[in-house]
Write a structure and sequence with these properties.
mainly beta; seven-stranded antiparallel β-sheet; 19 strands; hydrolase activity; TAT_signal
């Protein structure tokens, strides 16, 4: 279980727009998985009856922008609360479709030695409440590289973090290529003390070697994480150490690749650039 980490905090949010709401309000009973919280067989956890209600398949010409009806670009180089190094841009050099049905987020080291990347959100555009939130991703690799697929509560920034809630569906830090992490950050359990757990590649290989499917099954009072359909942890409202459960609201999705920061550390001589996070799709299912 990961216990040392700074919060993925959230400066310069986009302005709130008219919301596209997904009605994902027909969850089944809460389920459980092998995890540091509630435990049950993983095969009982991932709902095979999920129905697709929204997706971005990233189909389009090579070099084109991600669909602006779905995605915002957050920009800036102010460290993002974690002493990160990258400047997030809306340039096609850092986020573009590849013409083969993928979105590519590229972290680059520029000629002046600085770093650029992209951070994309669905805030104000696609904000589900409950369901399976899933993406098929080939992550980047290398010391100091920090890819993530995650969500923030739709009440942010009016409700400040961590009270607004955060669901980290997948995070990886380059020095641990065989591990991905899933976490909840909320009031009383955030930053270096979240509700969190990790999934190790079954063969101990790098998750950057190929595509993997990262998901949460999110119901009232519970969140279950899975990788390639293998559930590895569940947290429920009983696991918040007496603190509020803040996940019964709309959340928006985020894709980004950070460079450096308090948790992953910083690039060194072994880190090669550019590094690409290739996203085959992002999908939302009702459960």
């Amino acid at each position: 279980m990961r216990t040392e980490r700074s919060p993925r905090t959230f400066l310069a949010p986009v302005a709130t727009a008219a919301l596209t709401l997904l009605a994902l309000l027909s969850p089944g009973a809460a389920s459980a998985a092998t995890a540091p919280a509630s435990a049950a067989p993983a095969s009982d956890t991932v709902d095979s009856q999920a129905a697709l209600v929204w997706s971005d398949e990233f189909n389009g010409p090579s070099g084109s922008a991600p669909n602006p009806a779905n995605w915002n670009h957050e920009t800036g180089n102010h460290g993002w609360g974690n002493n990160e190094l990258q400047n997030y841009t809306n340039s096609r050099n850092n986020s573009a479709l590849d013409g083969n049905g993928n979105l590519v987020i590229t972290a680059r080291q520029e000629a002046n030695g600085s770093y650029t990347s992209a951070r994309m959100t669905t805030q104000g555009k696609v904000q589900p409440q409950y369901g399976r939130i899933e993406a098929r991703i080939q992550i980047p690799r290398g010391q100091g590289i920090w890819p993530a697929f995650w969500m923030l509560g739709g009440s942010f920034p009016g409700t400040p973090w961590p009270n607004s809630g955060e669901i980290d569906i997948m995070e990886n830090i380059g020095r641990e290529p065989h591990l991905v992490h899933g976490s909840l950050h909320g009031p009383g359990y955030s930053g270096g003390n979240p509700l969190t757990g990790s999934y190790m590649h079954p063969q101990g290989w790098s998750f950057a070697d190929t595509f993997h499917t990262f998901a949460v099954d999110w119901r009232p009072g519970s969140v279950t994480w899975s990788v390639n359909g293998n559930a590895y942890q569940t947290y429920t409202s009983a696991d918040t150490r007496g603190n509020p459960w803040v996940y019964d609201q709309q959340f928006f999705m985020i894709l980004n690749v950070a460079v450096g920061g308090n948790w992953p550390g910083y690039p060194d001589g072994s880190t090669q650039f550019p590094q690409r996070m290739v996203v085959d799709y992002v999908r939302v299912y009702s459960l």
